[in-house]
Amino acid sequence: MAQSGTPSTQALTYFATQSQRQGLRESDAANLSVTSSYLDQATGLTHSYLRQRVNGLDVYGAVGDVHTDRTGKPVLMHQGFVADAARLAPSAAPTLTAEQAIAAAAIGLKLPRPVGITLVRDARPGDGLLFNNAGISEYDIPVRLMYLPVNGRLKLVWDVTIAQLDEQHHWAARVDAHTGLLLDKSDYVISEEISFQQLTARALGNRTAVTAATAPNPTAANRGTLATPNSLTVFPVPVEAPTFGNRTAVPFSSISTAYSPYGWQVSDARAPAGTFPTSYSRIGSGVFLTRGNNVAAYDDSPSTASGNGNLLSNTNSPDGTAALDFDFPFSQPAGPKASSSAAITNLFYWNNMLHDVMMSKGFDEASGNFQYRNTGTQGLGGDFVRAESQDGSGRNNANMSTPVDGQSGRMQMYLFDNPVRPTFTISSPAGLAGVYTIGTAGFGRSLTRFPQGLCGTVVAVNDGVSGNGGVHGCATPYVNAAAVSGKIALIMRGGCAQLPVGQQTNSSFAGKIRRAQQNGAIMAIIVDSLATGTAVLNIGGTDTVGIRIPSIFISGVDGARIRQALQAGTPVVGCATAPVGEDFDGSVDNGIIAHEFGHGIHTRLSGGPGNSSCNVASDGTTATQSMGEGWGDFFGLWMTTRPSDVGRAPRGIGTYASGQPTAGRGIRIKQYTDDMAVNNHSYSVIGTTNYRQTHAIGEVWAATLWDLNWQFIYRYGYNTDLLGRTGGNNRFLRLVLEGCKLQVCNPSFLDGRDAILRADSLLNGAANSAVLWTMFARRGMGFSAVGGIRTNGLPTTDGIVAAFNMPPGTLPTPVLDPRVTPLGTQSASAINGSLVDAYPNPTQNVLTIQAQLPSKSAVRVSLVNLIGQVVTTTTAPVGDLQRGLTVNTSNLAEGLYVVRVNTSEGTFTTKVQVKH
């Protein structure tokens, strides 16, 4: 059934005709299910999203879309239907009942057994029945009979939707309608999927404890004393987090009436009577809460599965009183509990701002945005965002659950650990006294269990069999077991594999630490085997051997100094400490809030608001080109861009939540910047060892969008009015959202590229085609790129071929950079130079030269000194230049050089400095 309307006959005829040209039978596209169809008033486009139907049942994953302009003319279509589906489909008569399917899904998902299953809404099985929650789901359970493509056939399945009570998953599961076997599942919850251990390992190099000393000093305005009626005290757009700026009072009067006509708050006079049910607002005398048409923000910390219980309680949302004064004290050093009301208010504000900004760019009622009541006739209401602050169901994470339009999205914001970097402090002898950097183990007793530190005398072990005096700890009991007992055992890494056969033992870190424990040590220090090395590792692995003592890792250089003192008979005394600071609150890391809201945007827009399964990150066995995390990062960066920012400045994600300074790397592999010397991500890395996980894959897409965003800003300017249509930032965001509407369900990177190009064609007459192609090609998504192999309808990471070329006849546009010359006054030489990237600049030993230049013959790349002498020349295919050509500069004298690139289309130059 259509979500808002029905496609025109012209659109459906076009879809059927084109589908047959693409290899389908006439019957394959003759009987369609319309999941949603709506008119976009701003663009005049009608977007219709379809699903194949056989024997009166929908085919899961067999989807298509068709888009028409104001005149009804089709402008774009995609289809992923099953060819000859009628022949492949078995009988539509199931063996299992819908109730039995719920039980089978619970078994397959490893959930408790359902109890008291009761039919709530009867219907034809192919249209979907509704059952009560059966004690296993937050909501009533929809069940629908469908077909599922499996290995070239269609299987009859029941599609069962269950929102787990622990709030960690919202499953749509397909179980065999005859056997009950779980065949397929997808999750509406999109989580960060990164453990805090991984986060810490990435961020450790630049981690700084955010305390009262390093965070902005709280002023009186930050302590809940503004007392400004009709306002919210928050970290306002574009302040990314408490480390980036202070809070201010944002008046309710500044709220856009165009995009939030009912206001933000339940007691807003603009909201018509009866807008909010009593069960939602619970409005009593003097109760004015952080709840409104777009979002309900509340404390969800009391239990691990609180959900609706907290939503419906007045005490879990801050009360602004009749004065609507939402000003509450905030202090990170005082801890998140003391700042809970301030954090919830901030979460409420940012969700509302995201609603308004994204609605101004096309994520509106018709396309499935989040609102309790819609003002128009398109789209379904009843789906405000449930924004849960300090959620008790997890830590060190955040997630967004986005079911189909008409069902609330839920954003869960957690607390993040605040471990100050652990250290080992030597108090004697005086020559070694000081603080040493250490790594810690993922097993054994944590140093955080010792608030005052774990202190003792250090003793080098002697196992009696290994080299270096037995200090490798390869055997037990130690020769000096009595001396080690009650002390801190010093053990060198490695050294056990070289022992004679019969003496070799478990040489792992865990094995060495276990033997130290057996000899009475209170702690173990593992010293790196490279005596000149300065690297510090976190000791990985799982405790499978009963380790109950702490252990740390120090560098070879530091370890050598300690061993030297011990060998000289000098006692060494030290303390290992891992102080714990107050938790960081995700509800005030606004980049993460925007990232999570972003998952709601791309989920509702891709494939239409009636299908939340068009950005699948994995089918359970194969990594896919899911760009969801990339969109999330881009939205977070976009919302927190300051007018003074430039594209070259590196930006991290989640620096506040991970305890880093504002310039920290954050929780991603690389910082975001349009400087290729800092972030050289390209399509070519997708599917390689470090780029098969969802977030790593998403980084490449976000880096590409970030490049384009800045090129638009440099061309059209930056508009501080984020609700506006002018300015490069607003123009490009609109293209990104429109691209999501136009792209195929479960797009590859190249599908996403093509959708943005088509959006520019439809909205701007292709005015930005050259710059779009230039920047896509720069990141490996050029004209000749290949998008990989699709498996089960999903774009896998297999078979990807990156390309850095432009379409035939399309010249690259200058890559603008305000450092070259003031914007708007680019000279011919500056434009020429902006077509060639040379990095790093200054360079030391190896220079990479990259340019998206066309050439009918091989290119010649030369370096010319300031007196005109050619000092080095390389000739290579144009493809090498487009991918990045390396030149050895180690033998060149320091100074300024001109990089000269000769092609069949002309000569292009840029400057580079060599500095050894």
Helix share of residues? 10-25%
In DSSP terms, counting alpha (H) and pi (I) runs of 4 or more, how many helices? 19
Q: Rough shape?
A: globular
Runs in which pLDDT lies below 50 for 5 or more consecutive residues are 193-223, 304-309, 821-828
Q: Give a short account of the largest sheet.
A: 8 strands, mixed
Biggest sheet: strand arrangement: 21-20-27-23-24-25-26-22
Assign the structural class, choosing from mainly alpha, mainly beta, alpha/beta, alpha+beta, or little secondary structure.
Answer: alpha+beta
Describe the structure.
The protein contains 19 helices and 39 strands. With 916 residues, the protein is of the alpha+beta class. The chain has an 8-stranded mixed beta sheet, sandwiched between helices. A hairpin with a 5-residue loop joins strand 35 (859-864) and strand 36 (870-876). Helix 13 crosses helix 14, helix 14 (694-716) crosses helix 15 (728-742) and helix 15 crosses helix 16 (749-764). The protein is globular and about 90 Å long. The termini are far apart. InterPro entries: FTP_domain, Fungal_virulence_M36, PA_dom_sf, PA_domain, Peptidase_M36, Peptidase_M4/M1_CTD_sf, Secre_tail. Keywords: Hydrolase, Metal-binding, Metalloprotease, Protease, Secreted, Signal, Zinc, Zymogen. Residues 31-78 form the FTP domain. It is found in: Secreted. Its cofactor is Zn(2+).
